């Protein structure tokens, strides 16, 4: 353990969108960060007191919630699923835009009304969000947890419905599925550990402000 400030970044698709903001906030990782062959997970930066770690997007929230990292970037899909009270999300970064939706086979959607369901079986990477969403309207959602390729579940008889992220809709279309309901709009957020915000307020608010300025500059240039 040391007193370095640790920033957790997701290694998946939003990293490409996040890095221009990280750099505009004044943080430049060591050269190895951009080496596709590197096995390193933790990287130094141009700031001797700041390191970057690169983890799966769901794990960004967990590292920051437990205080192993102090700041991070994660989609609100991930934040909703964990609902960690230790996390504070002060800034919408305006990247990673998509939506979390319910989908089912096109043929089924023709004569189906989700508002009439009383019980439903759903394949998803988001069982908590899904259960909460349906419970609010008195529907019992039985969730089968998958970590990807949810779109295969209906055609193979695992579950007729899925809850997954949708952006262009081309993944649903390619798998014969139709979006029937939107649960939430999704963008990526800057997240911070609440305890770190209390114990290192100057440093933490300084970086939140730097990310806010980076977002404003990016939006102004767009
Ligand atoms: N199609 C999409 N369009 C825009 N943003 C997306 C899309 N899919 C996912 N995202 C956003 O990017 C985040 C990471 O998604 P990604 O697909 O890279 O994760 P993953 O493949 O599930 O990653 P992992 O390998 O970490 O499990 C999501 O939590 C969401 O906020
Ligand atoms: O509406 P679209 O533009 O087709 O995007 C939706 C797809 O994007 C995400 O998957 P991703 O490509 O990240 O792959 P994954 O299955 O590894 O999560 C999501 O899980 C959908 O499958």
UniProtKB/TrEMBL annotation:
* Domain remark in the UniProt entry: Lacks the C-terminal regulatory region which is replaced by HisZ.
The record's catalysed reaction(s) read: 1-(5-phospho-beta-D-ribosyl)-ATP + diphosphate = 5-phospho-alpha-D-ribose 1-diphosphate + ATP
Q: What is the lineage of its organism?
A: Bacteria, Pseudomonadati, Pseudomonadota, Alphaproteobacteria, Rhodospirillales
Keyword Nucleotide-binding belongs to the record:
yes
Protein's name according to its UniProt entry? ATP phosphoribosyltransferase
Query: In UniProt terms, what function does this protein have?
Result: Catalyzes the condensation of ATP and 5-phosphoribose 1-diphosphate to form N'-(5'-phosphoribosyl)-ATP (PR-ATP). Has a crucial role in the pathway because the rate of histidine biosynthesis seems to be controlled primarily by regulation of HisG enzymatic activity.
PANTHER family assigned: ATP PHOSPHORIBOSYLTRANSFERASE (PTHR21403:SF8), ATP PHOSPHORIBOSYLTRANSFERASE ATP-PRTASE (PTHR21403)
Query: What CDD domains does the entry give?
Result: PBP2_HisGs
The gene that this protein is the product of is hisG
**GO terms for CC?**
cytoplasm
| A Gene Ontology biological process term | L-histidine biosynthetic process
What EC number is given for this enzyme?
Answer: 2.4.2.17
HAMAP family attached to this UniProt entry: HisG_Short
Q: Name one Pfam family in it.
A: HisG
Family the entry assigns: Belongs to the ATP phosphoribosyltransferase family. Short subfamily.
Residue span(s) of domain ATP phosphoribosyltransferase catalytic:
56-208
- SUPFAM superfamilies the UniProt entry points to: Periplasmic binding protein-like II
- In which organism is this protein found? Magnetospirillum gryphiswaldense (strain DSM 6361 / JCM 21280 / NBRC 15271 / MSR-1)
**GO MF annotations, alphabetized:** ATP binding; ATP phosphoribosyltransferase activity
Q: Does the keyword Cytoplasm apply?
A: yes
């Amino acid at each position: 353990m040391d007193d370095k400030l640790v920033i957790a970044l997701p290694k998946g698709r939003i990293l490409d969108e996040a890095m221009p903001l990280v750099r505009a906030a004044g943080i430049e990782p060591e050269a190895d960060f951009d080496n596709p062959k590197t096995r390193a997970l933790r990287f130094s930066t141009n700031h001797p007191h700041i390191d970057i770690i690169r983890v799966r997007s769901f794990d960004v929230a967990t590292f920051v919630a437990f205080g192993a990292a102090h700041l991070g970037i994660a989609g609100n899909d991930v934040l909703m699923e964990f609902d960690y009270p230790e996390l504070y999300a002060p800034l919408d970064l305006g990247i990673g835009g998509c939506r979390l939706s319910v989908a089912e086979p096109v043929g089924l959607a023709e004569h189906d009304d989700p508002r009439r369901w009383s019980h439903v079986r759903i394949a998803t990477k988001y069982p908590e969000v899904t259960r909460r969403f349906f419970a609010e309207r008195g529907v019992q959602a039985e969730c089968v947890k998958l970590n990807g390729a949810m779109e295969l579940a209906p055609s193979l008889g695992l579950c007729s419905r899925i809850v997954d992220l949708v952006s262009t809709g081309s993944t649903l279309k390619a798998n014969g599925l139709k979006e029937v309901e939107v649960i939430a709009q999704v963008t990526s957020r800057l997240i911070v550990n609440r305890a770190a915000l209390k114990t290192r307020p100057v440093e933490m608010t300084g970086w939140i402000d730097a990310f806010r300025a980076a977002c404003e500059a990016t939006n102004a240039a767009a």
